[in-house]
Specification:
mainly alpha; single chain; snoRNA binding
């Protein structure tokens, strides 16, 4: 083993001598490289080989290459690459080959070799890597697609890419992704040839020696791939994916028509008749069929009328769909389509109004069928309010809460509508909501209620509502209500009032840290801020959170140091208590921050 290592180190000598001779590395650095290389070589020459050792060696060599690259750029030296970099590159490829030969099943190792080849533009080596990798991992379509894309996009060889796709399809004859990418490749090849021909014609060159087949230029090869695929793959999703690819190319109108017709055949089959997505695609493609018509010079009014007709055809399909598949998902597809069309910009007021009426009508039909999903009621209400149909909005909101009487979100939505419209029955609706919804999870309703009451009711009514909310909510939810109650009391009643409320609230756990920090902040805002009161609030907070919050202790120390009535001699006692109460790693965190505070760096 030692002899092999020595031989490999000797093989490095010429490149290291060149590195020193041209001034890229110093003698000390050369020795360091040799020491590191020696250690790495011994690790990969052992009987029990480890993958990590090869990875570390490869990473070291790559880092060395990057360092050489930066040194060259710094001193402006670009010669002797064959003696230096090429030697290292050859060694990295050799290491990768040994590693992938030993651990053939590790796809990530193969992909690392591929990435290295791409980074250093080793095209010849990369072809070999792909060839060996695909022979071992022929069961992975993604690797075939990667290799074919590289042949097409980097080596500009559509013939090699086609050959790889055909080989891949022998192993995976029913793989949709392979057919999609093969289809895309053929269209890219056709587009490339069309551009070449256009440039030649523009330059008025003789095309006699170039053979540009009209069939290939029109995407006939892609059509053959598509037809072959439809013999094996019957899914509607595949038809949609292929159509989306075809739409990326401006010469595929005929091909798109064929795909649409084929899709219609699949969609009408019994196996897909109950699938909402199938109906959704069928309806939406009525728009696509219209867009494939040859463009004509028409007026804006005719274009608007044509768009309206196409949308009507889509809705006719959707109407048939909700009759054949009366489900929430089907209605959701229909409503989503209507909302998309309504939100599209148009200069035609008539078309905009038609879209609005259609959308509201579909919402209403779905609601009457009891198949309107809960999530869509909010969009319906927004649309009604935007259209100034307030009475209808109130009616819909009430119907939604009847249907989803246990849903907090639905009640909240209804209440927001009533508040926005400034209705008189808001309080009654709040009472009804609280009665229907279980106590757990009602926090959103209580926060909305008290916020509304703050701006509408008297102080006495609002205070009574806050106190009621504390009794009605769960302990975890009451924490938020306590914070809101404290904040509102200070804003509406002043310092004396908030101090009384704080004392009364402290009688019932749980609390939040923000609850205490809010009271501390209120005290500090007073002209006669008393340290005695601050100590009381800090002590209360520390009883609850002293074991889990280091910043609370540090803030307490800062108050004693900076407040006019503070006692710096108390800091030692606070520090000792903190060390006793804090748990785990928090002790170390506190010590480091306390040291920074003492030295004036915090």
């Amino acid at each position: 083993m030692a002899e092999r290592v020595e031989q490999r180190l000797e093989d490095r000598v010429p490149e290291l001598e060149q590195l020193e001779r041209v001034g890229l590395f110093s003698r000390t650095e050369i020795r360091a490289v040799l020491r590191k290389a020696s250690a790495l070589e011994y690790k990969i020459q052992r009987r029990a080989l480890r993958k990590e050792d090869f990875i570390n060696y490869i990473q070291y060599e790559i880092n060395l290459l990057e360092l050489i690259k930066k040194r060259r750029a710094r001193i402006g030296y670009s010669f002797k690459k064959e003696e230096i970099e090429y030697s290292i590159l050859h060694r990295v490829h050799s290491l990768f080959n040994r590693a992938t030969g030993k651990w053939k099943d590790d796809v990530q190792l193969w992909l690392s070799h591929v990435a290295f080849c791409k980074q250093w533009n080793a095209k010849h080596q990369l072809s070999k890597v792909f060839s060996t990798m695909l022979a071992i991992h022929s069961n992975k379509p993604a690797l075939w697609i990667m290799a074919a894309k590289w042949e097409m996009e980097t080596r500009l060889s559509s013939e090699s890419a086609r050959h790889l796709f055909l080989r891949a399809l022998r192993f995976h004859p029913e793989c949709p992704k392979l057919y999609q990418e093969y289809f895309r490749m053929e269209l890219m090849h056709a587009e490339k040839q069309r551009k070449e021909k256009k440039e030649f014609e523009k330059a008025k060159m003789d095309l006699g020696e170039f053979n540009y087949s009209e069939e290939i230029l029109n995407g006939e090869m892609a059509r053959i791939v598509y037809r072959d695929a439809t013999q094996k793959i019957k899914g509607v999703e595949f038809q949609l994916a292929v159509l989306s690819i075809a739409k990326l190319f401006d010469f595929t109108q005929d091909l798109q028509k064929e795909i649409l017709e084929k899709h219609a055949v699949f969609s009408l089959q019994a196996s897909y008749a109950d699938d909402p997505l199938t109906w959704d695609h069928m309806a939406r493609w009525e728009l696509d069929l219209g867009s494939l018509q040859p463009p004509e010079h028409t007026t804006k009014q005719r274009k608007v009328a044509e768009m309206a007709r196409r949308e009507e055809r889509c809705c006719a399909v959707f109407d048939e769909a909700v009759g054949a598949v009366p489900t929430e998902d089907m209605w959701k597809c229909y409503i989503t389509f209507c909302l998309e069309r309504y939100n599209r910009k148009t200069n035609s007021g008539e078309l905009k109004q038609k879209r609005l009426e259609r959308t509201l009508s579909v919402f209403n039909k779905a609601h009457e069928s009891d198949l309107l999903p809960e999530s869509l009621y909010k969009q319906w209400l927004q649309l009604l309010l935007e259209s100034h149909l307030s009475e209808k909005a109130v009616e819909v909101a009430e119907a939604a809460t009847r249907r989803f009487s246990l849903s907090v979100d639905t009640w909240q939505m209804r209440l927001q509508v009533l508040i926005q419209l400034k209705r008189e029955d808001v309080s009654q609706c709040f009472e009804e909501a609280i009665k229907h919804v279980k106590s757990k999870g009602t926090l959103a309703l209580w926060t909305l209620w008290v916020e509304w009451s703050e701006g509408t009711n008297s102080k006495e009514d609002t205070e009574a509502l806050y106190q009621r909310s504390l009794r009605a909510t769960t302990p975890a939810e009451s924490v938020t209500m306590k914070e809101m109650y404290l904040d509102w009391t200070y804003r509406s009643g002043g310092y004396k009032k908030v101090k009384k409320v704080f004392t009364s609230l402290c009688e019932n756990r749980p609390f939040s840290l923000d609850f205490f920090r809010k009271m501390i902040q209120i005290e500090k805002e007073q002209e006669s801020c008393k340290m005695l009161h601050l100590r009381e609030y800090y002590e209360r907070a520390l009883r609850e959170f002293g074991s889990t919050d280091t910043d609370l202790w540090l803030d307490y120390v800062k108050e004693e140091l900076t407040h006019p009535q503070g006692k710096p001699e108390n800091c030692g006692s606070i520090h000792w208590r903190a060390m006793k109460m804090l748990q785990g790693d928090l002790v170390e965190d506190f010590v480091s921050k306390y040291t920074l505070l003492q030295t004036g760096h915090l």
